[in-house]
Structures
1.
Amino acid sequence: MCGIVGILGSKPVAMDLVDALRRLEYRGYDSAGIATVENGHLERRRAEGKLRNLEHRLLEQPLSGLAGIGHTRWATHGRPTERNAHPHMTPRVSVVHNGIIENYRDLKAELSAAGHTFESDTDTEAVVHLITHELDKGQQPIAAVQSALSRLQGAFALGIIFAGHDDLMIAARQGSPLAIGHGTGEMYMGSDAIALAPFTDTITYLDEGDWAVLRRTGVDVFDRTGQSVTRPQVKSVASALLVDKGNHRHFMAKEIHEQPDVISHTLANYLDMGAGTVNFPDLGIDLAKVERVTISACGTAFYAGLVGKYWIERYARVPVEIDIASEFRYREAPLQPGGLALFISQSGETADTLATLRYCKAGGQHIASIVNVRTSTIARESDAVLPTLAGPEIGVASTKAFTCQLAALACLSIAIGRARGTIDAAKERELVTALTEIPRLISTMLRDESQFEALAHTLSKARDVLYLGRGINYPLALEGALKLKEISYIHAEGYAAGELKHGPIALIDENVPVIVMAPEDDLFDKSISNLQEVAARGGQIILISNADPEKAGCKLAAHIKVPDAHDFANPLLYAVPAQLIAYHTAVIMGTDVDQPRNLAKSVTVE
Ligand code: F6R
């Protein structure tokens, strides 16, 4: 989603703003812009499309100024044109905004009636005119912003600079994250610490409702009531090297290859591998008494949760309710007070997941979250946090965060099972050992990607692709299809293998590749029966399995060989071929692998 940055610098800031925006590219965007203030005068440059277009614009029409704000825009209100790109401004004030101002229509009508002329289709412009209106009434910038903030409904992270004030920037957050960076004689703000990493590693995260007045000498933070508050300075781990792809062509490839390491780190956080036991943090709730788990998440994180449901129900014998966060939130599900509600999110900022968390909290649930960004809002609003140690995930398509979410969920299911006595010590050792082997097995698979490259050539010619899986492999089929469609733009759907004959089988012909995820587990024979139903209708079958391909009993278009592993740990292993298939297909298709069209990394709007 949109990224914002701001610099109160000691040298011209335009190129540093672009550099910081480049570090926010991973969030997804379709236009960009910067504005600076110099000798009291505001000016801006904006461009449709990628940051290189903005850079060209800046080469043709340089922008000086020691203070400025920048923005990468992921369109919500109004097309991704230059006219709608941020910063938005009047001669008095310039604003960058991440989020959605829900009452912008009312504000626009009111301000238009008062004589303000709007030039874009965005919700953000209402903020610009609201502040200008207050300034026109004679308010000073800080008071004008404070009045304006009290009128805004919705979600926002704002960066604001003013004509006539070269040493002033105001930042505000409600619903969208915002970090303040401390420099020496310079100050910064940005959507996350990664954007600020080249300038500083000393960060203050604003709390919900906070707003901050930055000057080169420091920052004053206020809460939503206007009370001065102190928020801690922390050292960010977002090093300046984070945008480095290493030897890889894309961040996605790098992140796929990091999985053996980051899964190990995540497992080590929850397991004593030597002893073969779980070593689970105290969730602040007695796991032996948990009667129901409610899981909520979006997209790939939701599919991780779906795998978690299979694990928790099978091994811990606790019923799990799971729903997509955007649905859960509005269906008014009854909640039994004292239940465990689990939220899964890489970014920890996904608007729907956060809203559902708050709904569950209000419903008396004990809140636990599996998050990758420990400083995120979801982490901070949870009673207990189960971190994934995936490190920053830059590729928009989630890979290593997904498998680390699976690792945390697998450990959680053993922990609940042990607490409830559904898993004895011997079984615990068996399951822990199974997980411990996964990083090595993934490394083996990553050694040679030629089978995936070959398959990608076939898939790149397809218009539609189906993924099938049974039992715990069903969520992996959903994830495989999501990964393929989001980065290759080939239409793909995942189905429960047994559901095929209830409708989707009508789609099968010789042009439709059908990828079957079928480890040789207790459901293997049933998956093979479904595979043969496809073969009988001429579908091109691609089998992903550790089994001998002869066992398919029919001609296969391809067989992706997966190493043997314990059934329990298979989901972590089978996630990887799905990632590699999507990745290599997208490379052949020539799409923007790390920043696929229309997608955003951190979805901070509903
Ligand atoms: C797909 C993908 C998305 C995210 C979803 C939730 O590859 O990355 O489906 O999983 O937007 O995001 P988080 O995990 O940040 O809540």
2.
Amino acid sequence: MEKEQLSYEEAIRRASDAIQRFPLIDVHGVPLMSTIAENWKSVSEFCPDPSDLLISTYPKAGTTWTQEIVDLLLHNGDAEVCKRAPTAVRIPFLEICSPPPIPSGLDLLEQMKPPRVIKTHLPIQLVPKGFWENKCKVIYMARNAKDNLVSYFHFDRMNLTQPEPGPWDGYIHKFMQGRLGWGSWYDHVKGYWKERKERNILYILYEDMKENPFREIKRIMHYLDLSVSEDVIKRIVQLASFQVMKDNPMANYSNIPKPVFDQSISAFMRKGEVGDWVNHFTSAQSQMFDEDYANQMKDVDIPFRFSI
Ligand code: A3P
């Protein structure tokens, strides 16, 4: 029998009953959603084409923003082409695996011809080795720990497939101990940082992108060996701005129904700011976090900024 072709939205609607806050299961010491852990063999064996591009981030570091910028760069700033499908369909999420009939990242990738752009949140040691063997380009975006934490907290409230975040104070400790999906933020940002030269990874910072998107988009353009006019880059700055993406149904995840992303709890495109952490941390929490941060980050000098 021929497989019924469902739209992504319809597939999610049909799977709604099977949606739950999936527990985390350790994969090589990294907690991942159980649906990913159960499918781990297929994920780890995925072999990209050398022309494929990987966008990697710790969750909530600005993945969707980077995806939009890259798609716009690859299509010379053509806004209409970049509205051909929602972000998750244009740029599949490698390891994501949900109840059928929702297509997994691997299902979507199988239907696409290289060169593909692929999203992952995997820490560097779990990225399928084919990406390194085939010398694929990799763009890594990182965001300062406190804003990243705040964003993840609100995301875990509204993403009903992620474990309950619990109260804010406890969440800070979970973050510091790496007990969240995709593990430790500290190990994640450090892992890619230490390997960036050896493996030709373009390492970009959310705060730099926010401060000067024109400059950072140009860096991405050069890395991708593209030649896009300055006018087009200016247009991309505008099209990938927070407000334009918030209003763009192909970039704001409004296609994901409420049983998965309940945006009445917190919007996916929530604030998009640097320094929102000051509205969440008490001064005692901030001090405790900073002391632990200094210790966990003492072996690297990544130029994160907590305000701009
Ligand atoms: P906030 O929760 O702080 O608002 P990801 O795409 O990795 O899930 O990250 C989501 C975070 O990036 C959210 O942060 C979201 O608002 C922010 N974001 C998305 N698009 C953005 C843009 N164009 N400019 C600035 N921030 C953006």
3.
Amino acid sequence: MMLAYMDRAAAAAEPEDAGEAVTVAAAAADDEAARDFGGLVSARPAAVVRPASADDVASAIRAAALRADLTVAARGNGHSVSGQAMAEGGLVLDMRALALPRRMQLVRSPSGAAFADVPGGALWEEVLHWGVKNHGLAPASWTDYLRLTVGGTLSNGGVSGQSFRYGPQVSNVAELEVVTGDGECRVCSPSSHPDLFFAVLGGLGQFGVITRARIPLHPAPQTVRWTRVVYASFADYTADAEWLVTRPPDAAFDYVEGFAFVNSDDPVNGWPLVPFPGGARFDPSLLPAGAGPILYCLEVALYQHQQQHRAHDDDDEEDNKNNKVSAMMAPLKYVRGLEFAADVGYVEFLSRVNRVEEEARRNGSWAAPHPWLNLFVSARDIQAFDAAVLKGMLADGIDGPMLVYPMLKSKWDPSTSVALPDGEIFYLVALLRFCRGGGPAVDELVAQNRAILDACGRNGYDFKTYFPSYRGEAEWARHFGAARWKRFVDRKARYDPLAILAPGQNIFPRAPAAAAAPGGIV
Ligand code: FAD
């Protein structure tokens, strides 16, 4: 069966085969797979395969191995920005096809711990709604935006304001089912095939296709006290943020994030980014006289769980929450008066970026190109980065959020494939540009991203790119550093010896089938 549809894939001519569990769409019928959220590159596959099972994924990979030049890219929700989920002339696996809600399952360990078994193509939003609605349970670690797939974020890292405390998403996985580049389906975990397990986490899709992930679940909070405060001084902002992320868990927030914005009333780059909907207003007269071109907004959240007891206990709980928030906020050096708080539901809090999506769809910037740049910058160099980049090159803003918030390296397992800076505390810097038309040309923004990377290199900052986009082995070797690159190459040889998988990352060229003939393929 597989060979039959491989011929169609190569010819890219036949219509969708609706009669089989696996469906294959001719590329012309599926432009989606030739594009991604970034809108900067385009690569047309020979065919899009919609797998109905891990076996279908394995069949596609085995069939690709029989051709000298065929590659296979798993596509999650296509939210990459540089073609990472594309396969020029190859097969794109539409992982969303593996993500029917009925395939999520609650699993209990012998000790009673709860886990969700979810398809690799499930959206985190689907995991959230399924877990909270059916079981009152939820994962601990999220991304800001939840319409991303489990397999897509686990192939990168998966970070948000919870990462400092609960670890990134790659630190919140108990088990994976993976189809490796030799067409074998394996179940791996920290204790079973650990090398494969850790290779795949943050592995940029290079070692296998995640068809199922087992995610630890915890009782879902009921409400969230969500607070934003504003700083004029980056030194104060970072000192406070670092203090907050290094507090003991019983005296810490559940979420710490933040962003830089322009000190003006510009609706896209300035103060309107800060307050919550529903009345709170930003009063710029409260800013200190010497405030510079860029301000900073620290964003914290404390979860509250439902109490199953008497009303006065609920009052006690409310008092406890208020006291805890007050105790943590009191020593912070934000601009007094520029403080905005709200109590929101847990699901609403985690879904907060959906409003951004709705607005961006309305104004056309969701469909426009997104020349985004994501970096991890060591705390050692973040002041210099702020001076040179945020207050320097980007002092007028980027027509989108400039996230800057700290996390802890000790929450990341060094065995995963993710490349991080050296220091224990490092910052996510996410330059999330939205092009609304009338602004600078996209090429200029891409060039500015390159200039920022050059400045980081030239100034000797301890940094790594997140969602890296490099060309060729030399650049990738520099990205990983000698020891980690060697391990990455060794793992590639072990799990995808023909370099069939994730060609859109531009790391390894496809090897001819004759160069290696791993047992699993024929
Ligand atoms: P894709 O873009 O489809 O794929 C990404 C890579 O993973 C590709 O190489 C692909 O081949 C591979 N891949 C996909 N599925 C699988 C699989 N099942 N098995 C193996 N490999 C696979 N990231 C964060 O960490 N935190 C955030 O807060 C955050 N917010 C975002 C907000 C928006 C609006 C957008 C567009 C992106 C955001 N991201 C964030 C980035 C996001 O994590 C990446 O885009 C990531 O690639 C996930 O997107 P995806 O599921 O669409 O994967």
4.
Amino acid sequence: MREMNIRPRRLRGNDILRKMVRETRISADSLILPFFIREGNGIEEEIPSLYGQIRYSPDTIIKGVEKALKSGVSSFMLFGIPNDKDENGTGAFDEKGVVQKAVKRLKKEFGNDVYIITDVCLCEYTSHGHCGVVDGGIIDNDNTLPVLAKIALSHTAAGADMVAPSDMMDGRIAEIRELLDEQCFSNTPIMSYAVKYSSSFYGPFREAAGSAPQFGDRKSYQMDWHNGKEALKEILLDISEGADIVMVKPALSYLDIISEVSKAINIPVAAYSVSGEYAMIKAAARQNLINEYNAMCETAVSIFRAGADILITYYAVELTDAIKKGDIG
Ligand code: PBG
């Protein structure tokens, strides 16, 4: 018999073959675009910390959503920036609050052509900038729960399709679920920010939303990034309380967590590629140190490759264009 000299080798070929065998597929349907909405009228301003992103008001957000819809993005996450803040963040559940107004307008304008998710948290609405009610300088977990439920209910009553609590208080998913069910919103899903690390990558967001804590930090309620196993514990707790989708945040420094979580559970996993991740690419690209388009594509694909089902990203529109071109997906 003739002896064969077979060497193991990597598959080689042209673009058609490369696309044929891609292991990771992305669709615009899995992308969510965040928006910042400031109280007022006619606002359309560049966000300095998030170069390329625009802050709208409840009237102009129609334009922002329209543009995104044209490109093929139809899911949006709304963050509100109120004019007035107080100790207890009461603006967060005001029927005429900035998010509530925006949701109402968007649903009236676009109906079921858009899917509106609202961030449920107190930090943009409290004068101290913390995500919970503060008592004697300490974040009061249990007294924050009913307030969060009230916020979620007010968003849902305004027409939100899904609520996303990002505060990291213990027990809030159960509390929100119970109130929504009681008020006949049992079909409204909850996307829980289940694994939210105490990260430096939120910096540009806090600048954009004016939500930096005025004293201390968020380490008492956000997770320590030395810990991985704890992530699964948080996820399982939130699932047992009724979370429909769980989120890992940030994304890029936590691909290991996304990977483990997605293998361990049987509900959708969302990853939030946060403001600092976006800003890093923008800043490096503006200095011609990296190619923005390629870095955007590579990082987004890496998050899906790790196991995410959904990606929340400030690059949602640009990624959709990249998918259309066939560069990713
Ligand atoms: C509110 C919230 C934050 C982000 C999402 N929801 C800020 C924070 O926890 O400090 C960050 C998102 C981003 O950085 O893009 N709690």
